[in-house]
Design goal:
The protein is of the alpha+beta class. The strands form two sheets. Strands 3, 4, 5, 6, 7, 8, 9, 10, 11 and 12 form a ten-stranded antiparallel sheet that branches. A two-stranded antiparallel ribbon has the order 1-2. The protein is elongated. The N and C termini lie far apart (159 Å).
């Protein structure tokens, strides 16, 4: 504690001056016991210097230093002084930060002498009626609070001033067009980054360089697989010794054998033995169907057709494929050249000298539907010396 806040010169005082601060006066001054000291009296003028006292002075002599000439730094009373309230015994209430949220603090400021309870009665915008009739009256503050249907105190809530909540650019950003443009811009940015090698298609994978090598290897692998798995169109050859042969059961029983002059027509079954070359295939070759068409070589008229159906032949071999043919032709009369060519080739040998029948000449067209290939593959060949697969009786037409 500072014993004397006024001066440190001890010659002006008989002892240390007592502090005028009542709260800071912790201990009594160390003055001489039993000595009467005049307050604010300089030691230069003693109490026995009566020669200095003027006749008109009504007080003891003084050098001009009194207690009214000093600044009073102490508090005469507590700041929060109220009758019956002890500041040290009962402190100020603690400020509650949650008071506004718990609806416990003051709702309005009481500054400048304005006092508000926080509630104001306002007219209700919705008409009401106690009896529920259509002619309802608006609620007014004058209606009794105890009456049924009367609105109570309405708490006024501070509402910010109305204004544009969204700017023009923000409103445009929420439109579908702006979102679509943002997506396109994002895709364009990612595409540029991928071309620069800064990102991949799947995270850090499939960057530009990796994708190029991956596609190169993938194309090589696909080409290698296709080289072994894609079927090749086989070659066909006809049996030169016997191009046409008689049909076997049960196919020969399904087609009648007949030659007629009026009207001019013929019908009979037959077969053709074809040799396929599958040396270019690494896997077994599957035919969904092989359709054969026989045309007369002189007139180019169709005289026969047939189908093999679905079949599978081994690879790297020369399998034999049997093509069943249904010979059928209809003409106007027996002078038709196509009918005459096949009638002469199928007559009985006894009708000719040296038992030699004339050969039939035709063109064979094969349409192949191969599994694994798109579309139809075709091939054809000409046969100049073939025997008719049937022989008519001597008494035939």
């Amino acid at each position: 504690m500072d014993y004397d806040r006024k001066s440190a010169v001890s010659s002006f005082y008989a002892g240390r001056r007592t502090s005028v601060d009542a709260l800071n006066n912790d201990f009594p001054p160390p003055g001489a016991p039993g000595r009467t000291r005049a307050d604010s009296t300089s030691s230069f003028f003693g109490a026995d210097r009566a020669s200095r006292i003027h006749a008109f002075d009504g007080a003891s002599p003084s050098a001009g230093y009194n207690r009214n000439s000093y600044f009073d730094a102490g508090r005469a009373e507590p700041v929060n002084f109220k009758p019956g309230l002890d500041e040290e015994a009962q402190g100020e209430p603690v400020w509650d930060v949650y008071a506004d949220f718990n609806n416990a603090g003051p709702r309005y400021s009481t500054a400048f002498g304005v006092a508000d309870s926080g509630y104001r009665q306002v007219p209700s915008p919705t008409p009401y009626s106690r009896d529920g009739s259509a002619y309802a009256k608006l609620s007014t503050p004058t209606v009794g609070a105890d009456e049924l249907g009367t609105p109570g105190n309405v708490e006024m809530v501070t509402v910010p001033a109305l204004g544009p909540e969204w700017k023009a650019d923000e409103l445009r950003g929420m439109s579908k067009k702006a979102k679509r443009e943002e997506k396109l811009e994002e895709v364009a940015t990612k595409w540029k980054q991928w071309k620069r090698g800064q990102r991949g298609l799947c995270g850090r994978w499939f960057t530009k360089r990796f994708t190029a090598w991956f596609l190169f290897g993938l194309c090589g692998a696909i080409a290698l697989v296709l080289a072994f798995t894609v079927p090749r169109v086989p070659g066909f050859s006809v049996n030169s010794s016997e191009p046409l042969s008689p049909a076997t059961k049960p196919f020969n029983e399904s087609i009648p054998t007949e030659f007629s002059r009026a009207p001019a027509n013929f019908s009979f079954p037959g077969e053709m033995q074809l040799q396929a070359d599958t040396g270019g295939n690494f896997l077994p070759l599957t035919f969904n169907n092989i359709h054969g068409t026989v045309l007369d070589l002189q007139t180019s008229r169709q005289v026969a057709q047939g189908d093999t159906g679905k079949l599978t032949v081994p690879a790297k071999q020369l399998p034999i494929i049997t093509l069943p043919l249904n010979f059928s032709y209809v003409a106007t009369n027996d002078s038709d050249q196509t009918w005459a060519n096949w009638y002469n080739g199928c007559r009985n040998k006894g009708n000719y000298v040296n038992n030699q029948r004339p050969a039939v000449q035709f063109r064979l067209i094969l349409d192949m539907h191969i599994a694994g290939l798109i579309g139809t593959r075709s091939t054809s060949t000409n046969v100049d010396d073939a025997s008719c697969p049937i022989e008519l009786p001597l008494n035939s037409v």
